Amino acid sequence: MTVLFSAASTHAYEKARSRMVREQLEPRGINDPRVLAAMDRVPRHLFVDDALHAQAYGDFPLPIGEGQTISQPYMVALMTQLLGLTGKERVLEVGTGCGYQTAVLAALCEQVYTVERIKALHVRARRVFDRLHIFNLLGKIDDGTLGWPEHAPYDAIIVTAAGPTVPDPLVEQLADPGVLVIPVGERGSQQLVVVRKEAGEVTSRTVEDVRFVSLIGDHGWREQHG
Ligand code: SAH
Fold this sequence. Notes:
The chain is built from 6 helices and 9 strands; from the N terminus they run ααββαβαβαββαβββ.
């Protein structure tokens, strides 16, 4: 009976996931087939509280504890697509949170390095990675605005919290060529910025208005607001 029930609910989540891809991602310009396939495969509901499972595939962010949130599926897909991953990259993520974005990255590149400043979130995410047998990632508890110099340079860097500026250490730790995606702006509203390093030159462009939780650290905001 239990087995039947769990098979039925697994099927329901699979359906919710492919609906999410069809209705929230494809119509908004997510067209990288590898990104769409990863979003169709990674079980987003397992990264949030049991009580939120039914809402996990909705078109909105959700709370993950410690005053933090998991981004809306579209934002995860957009930021991932902007990295242009082919499968060979080494990627640095700042802001592990619940680990959902991390898992999507792990499905699309060779190795993910992920940094989270809040221990409880790091620990919870690691449990989910183990349960899902995701092994091509390494995580640590630290201030990710300093990057992770030991494993630099990174072909791609993604920051899932918003700072006042692009942290210098991250630009330094970016490979050439390399791409960095980060929300930058005020506390309450920001723009998604894509920084590219190519032939020794660093250029940046803004993509769209976004709203993220604060990046707290030496090269971010000084402390939590509110
Ligand atoms: N990608 C995450 C998003 C979580 S919200 C997810 O899918 O769940 C952003 C996360 O960034 C929060 O967990 C927050 O604690 C973390 N964060 C904020 N400043 C940070 C810093 N300087 N270094 C590492 N993590 C940071």
